[in-house]
Design a protein that fits this description.
Layout: H1 3-23, H2 33-41, H3 44-74, H4 78-83
Length: about 80
């Protein structure tokens, strides 16, 4: 299977999923008034701790995604060369 054909077939599905997530009200639940009010009332130290917590949760995810992407990019032609 050609990788370019595989990803070009996935583009409409990814766009539809993105549009669906943007239109669903539950997808934006992180902006609820109660959560915002609690975070705002906690003070600047709590806001800084919340921001650091978000970074702590985001960093491993981005590193894993980047590692898998780099691995796939490096091995992109091995499958075609092995079959010849």
């Amino acid at each position: 299977m050609n990788l370019r054909n595989y990803f070009s077939g996935m583009a409409p599905a990814a766009a539809a999923l993105g549009l669906f997530l943007c239109l669903v009200p539950e997808a934006s639940a992180q902006g609820c008034a109660m959560c915002y009010a609690d975070a705002e009332a906690a003070g600047p130290e709590a806001a800084r701790a919340l921001n650091l917590g978000i970074l702590a949760l985001l960093s491993p995810t981005l590193l894993l995604f980047g590692g898998i992407f780099c691995l796939a990019y490096r091995r992109r032609g091995e499958n075609q060369q092995a079959s010849k």
